[in-house]
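#lab-general

N.A. 3:47 PM
ok so I finally got the sequence cleaned up, no stray characters, all 221 residues accounted for. can someone with queue access submit it? mine expired

B.Y. 3:52 PM
send it over

N.A. 3:53 PM
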Amino acid sequence: MDKKSETIKHINEKTYQEFFSYLMKGSRLKCCEIVNNQLKENIPVKQIYVQLFERALYEVGRLWEFNKISVATEHMCTAITESLMNFIYNKISMKDNCSKNVIISSVENEMHQVGGKMVADIYEIHGWNSFFLGANTPLNELIRFAREIVPDTIALSLSVYFHMEYLEKMIIKIREALPETKIIVGGQGFCHGGRSIAEKYDMVKYISSLDELEQFIAGNL
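B.Y. 4:20 PM
back already:
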């Protein structure tokens, strides 16, 4: 699919509302049917990630923060979304490998990993070798792994604003250990502030969306 056709394909509001309703009810089968229909209509994976998964999970996160839903419901929605991403993964068309490496991890003490997994998939679509470490990887282990892989970029996902201090600690330690490695940061946690944290350190960039991530990737081939 060319870039022009990708930019004009969107998921309509009715489809999103149906998806969100089924997600909140815990109907993985219905959610999967909706996602599969979008794929059959050649909706790009990134659009499904952003317009269904990201939008729905941001709303789930907001409802959880305001005590409108339980932790169990939030976990259920997250688990269903991750299973849908696994369903999509085998259908993703990858570009030729560009011999670039990226390590993706959630911030230390952070238990959410869907955002990081989206970032990992987008990198793979663009031909990068993506090493996704998941949630709550100890900082020392991340640095040890990075010294083995020697990544071009390390991506850190923050879902909870109150974990910002852990993010800054990670940036400082990674910068000390791997001074030439680029670091990108992003995630729902930045909806409440903290975006200027990237400006305090060399070679650290805040990425606000998957569209901006693709632009960053294109500029770092």
